[in-house]
Design a protein that fits this description.
The chain is α/β, with parallel strands linked by helices and 543 residues long. It has 15 helices and 28 strands. The strands form four sheets. Strands 1, 2, 3, 4, 5, 6, 7, 25, 26, 27 and 28 form an eleven-stranded mixed sheet that branches. Strands 8-9-10-20-21-22-23-24 form an eight-stranded parallel β-barrel, surrounded by eight helices. Strands 11-19-15-16-17-13-14 form a seven-stranded mixed sheet, with helices on one face. The two termini are 19 Å apart. The site of adenosine-5'-diphosphate has 13 residues, from helix 10. Belongs to the pyruvate kinase family.
Amino acid sequence: MASMRMSMLNCETTRTTDQLSWTRNLSGFTTRTKQISVCFDNKAVFNVRSMRVVESNHSVDFSSSVNGSLNLDKQTSFGVQASNNSNDDTVVTLNARRKTKIVCTIGPSTSSREMIWKMAKAGMNVARLNMSHGDHASHQKTIDLVKEYNAQFEDKVISIMLDTKGPEVRSGDVPQPIMLEEGQEFNFTIKRGVSSDNTVSVNYDDFVNDVEAGDILLVDGGMLSLSVKSKTADTVKCEVVDGGELSSRRHLNVRGKSATLPSITEKDWEDIKFGVDNKVDFYAVSFVKDAKVVHELKDYLKRSNADIHVIVKIESADSIPNLHSIITASDGAMVARGDLGAELPIEEVPLLQEEIIRRCHSMQKPVIVATNMLESMISHPTPTRAEVSDIAIAVREGADAIMLSGETAHGKFPLKAVNVMHMVALRIESSLTSSTIPPSQSSASKSHMSAMFAFHSTTMANTLRTPIIVFTKTASMAIQLSHYQPSATIFAFTNEERVKQRLSLYRGVLPITMQFSDDAEETFSQALNLLLVLGNFSFMSAF
Ligand SMILES: Nc1ncnc2c1ncn2[C@@H]1O[C@H](COP(=O)(O)OP(=O)(O)O)[C@@H](O)[C@H]1O
Ligand SMILES: C=C(OP(=O)(O)O)C(=O)O
């Protein structure tokens, strides 16, 4: 077992002083810790402590599938033991904990109370509501259930992400899937409510203006494809290139072209208002093409007094030249590979994924890798090896979160899919060779004291192989720490429920709510107590 050191820090540190050793009784067990104290906010003295910790990371327990939240099962969670080393004080053992977060799309397979609870247990960190499907009443039910779940725990949290429909083009409803054969003629019409063997509606009136003869139409990112042959005032006539089943409300993309609609449509504004009313945690904004739309949404949120973060979905060909300004304006990004791979050549997708993750890291913004991650598990109980490798790549590239779509929304094996994602992420993370010093591209700017503090705390924590405890009111210090990707967990204590909700998207951060006392000593003790009570640390033997 490797020895580790647990440190505690706080934001806006301005100076450090040496400290004495400290003895106190914690939950009936005597512990001794060494402490370093730091000043923060230019006035209060706050303590940075250290404690001997042992990590049993050689035996990752895959049965302890947790949503990055605490595991109450003492067998599979943490333990604390007395150190034999007289210089080192309390020793804690803990099993590795998944750092990469899991976003799950909620749909018919997972919207029941029972399934929300089971998904949370299996490892869901963020519930995504796709506004392209369902109505406000059905999404309201999900929101209420997630909130009910959250209200039960200080140490477990599912955040809510509302994904706007955006200016997407979709085929209309069909009573039964239509089988399209290669070479057959098939039409899309802007007339509403049409569904026959050779024609269906599209939901976008300018479709006829946007497409030209010779364009290639992709259904569901290329599951079916058609070549445009001609058009009339209301109908686009095509020939099927790759056939298959066309079901209701399928995505339509024109290879290489973005729709000319605004990124936030009238329906989106209604959905955004619904999100404000329900205090969701994140918007995932579809088909963002430039930073202007992000500013527009942020202005609206400010006017509405709504503290909701904006995640931009990078999925439109038009967004690529504006990546820097879009991500700068946002609070994070999603690599929405479905539409991205339809609007741009598919071989560009892995390169863009890497680039978007790199840019988000450089701006300390969270990034989600989405779509097709375990696609085969929509209908099969086990993933393809390529899907497992895809998850591994996203984890290695440093994504904050990885996303399940149809796998959990309407798949046959939603819990198994979450479990596979959890296990693969955990295994890959355990194999990552963590250098002691955080990556050089993330070196701390000397002008930002908090960045320097996070950088050096990470170096210390990595050297000593210890988790970190951070106390944060605004999430900022926990986010800074997450950015440097320490090798062990960041326990983020906050007295703000919304901060806890938000932090559940960030890699390596385990948010816990707790009331802060005016007395920093007491706050620290309370936090340790809470970790003990919640089963993060349990003494295996006392001294
Ligand atoms: N709230 C919902 N109600 C009904 N079906 C849903 C819902 N959310 C997702 N789905 C189903 O799951 C599929 C995959 O989800 P997702 O990838 O989010 O959708 P899409 O690719 O259609 O944008 C959808 O195409 C739809 O069939
Ligand atoms: C996540 C995506 O968006 P949606 O599921 O809303 O189409 C995507 O296109 O990859």
